[in-house]
User: What shape does this take?
Amino acid sequence: MTSPVDLGIGPRVIPRAEHSISRADISRNAVKVLYRLKDAGFQACIVGGGVRDLLLGRIPKDFDVATDASPEQVRELFGNCQLIGRRFRLAHVRFRDEIIEVATFRGVGGEDLESEDRHVLDESGRIIKDNAYGSIEEDAWRRDFTINALYYNIADFSIMDYVDGMADIAARRLRLIGDPETRFREDPVRMVRAARLAAKLDLEIDAATAAAIPKLAPLLDAVPSARLFDEFLKVFETGHALESFRRLQAHGLFEHLFPATGAWLAADDAAGRRRAFIEQALANTDSRVAAGMPVTPMFLFGVFLWGPVTERARELAAEGLAEMPALVQAGFEVTTAQVRRVALPKRFSIPMREMFHLQPRFGRRQGRRVQVTLQHRRFRAAFDLYLLRDVLGEADPAAIRFWTDIQNVGGPAASGHEPAAPEGAAEGDAEASGNGEGPPPRRRRRRSRSRGRSGRRAPEPAPAT
Ligand code: ATP
Ligand code: MG
Assistant: This one.
């Protein structure tokens, strides 16, 4: 492997006849954008997940364009174009059903390239500023993994490979470009991306890349919590949550994202019920995504925090607090500590805590409270959590039967008042979009990047939990 200092060697060019990507695999709109750029005299390529997924035989979820045209030049070429981003300007070219993201090639900070306004690192080696445009070669070097740095060139339909990415595609290997420790220090989120992409694409993480993770995992603690929430959504809400969780745990990363949950899992019982509880929830979420059903981050967050919340509630109860105040206080404390690590917007954390607060109600099956509970807007999500708690030995089979039957005999929850959703996911989304705080992230992403070509939508609904 060469280093950024070797800039100028040029790419390995894989001609059209020697790779599997055809224009027909790429979204029509992306192809249009590529041709308009090319016809105006610019370089124009598809790069990143789109090329990678096609080469691995998957259907990409979107196609990102990279060019040597500046954002302003891109805007002049497209009427339907908007420039976004402060730290790094991107062009969004809007089509009826899709937005194509067009990025100008970015520079890389090699030892000899560093200058104050190009590529600034903090004491731990983290990039805190990176705003220089560059050549396609520099653009390749500043990307994270070799398989993410392959360029499909519309000029001759070749693939340009500066970083030996094709060899890693063939070996199904995820390898950081350059020195792993340096690259993880620059941006610790790359460690989470490694676990996520390996899980999603069923890849092996290269030995040298994996070896750098244990020592550097603590750097995640200093990553801004909002960025980690964005990453949380990609890891846990896009259909490969279970495998991602296992990889995050295997590499010692999960405990840096969810420290209280990590500690709770580390104290699992001999039967492994805590792990089973978490993994069941993740598997359910993956089934829902596969079936095209809505998911909400508040549910999995709630599942992750439930153990720590109950432990804290027990401590508070031992100090003399009654059951409900102890639960409320514990939910507040555990959530407050967690959102410093991975931000959970209030539109999700509030319903999540309501879901906690409903748990004791499932043990009471008499009187007026039954109707009140059934009509609660978090009933579905809360009952799904209660069903999962069976794995922990915390649910009463008679209560499960009671609350299941009462829904089936036409209680408010079954009357179409709320969508029947095994995870209560729809409520979270509906709430989020209905309270004036803007659409939930999943939907926002869907709007900003086409999901139309996603291969994830399966016709069958997920089995109800
Ligand atoms: P997915 O298919 O899940 O979207 P992706 O690789 O396309 O995976 P994006 O977050 O969409 O992920 O990033 C697009 C591209 O930008 C990547 O393929 C990679 O080349 C580059 N990239 C993304 N994040 C980083 C990072 N933290 N450091 C360096 N390059 C990155
Ligand atoms: Mg992508």
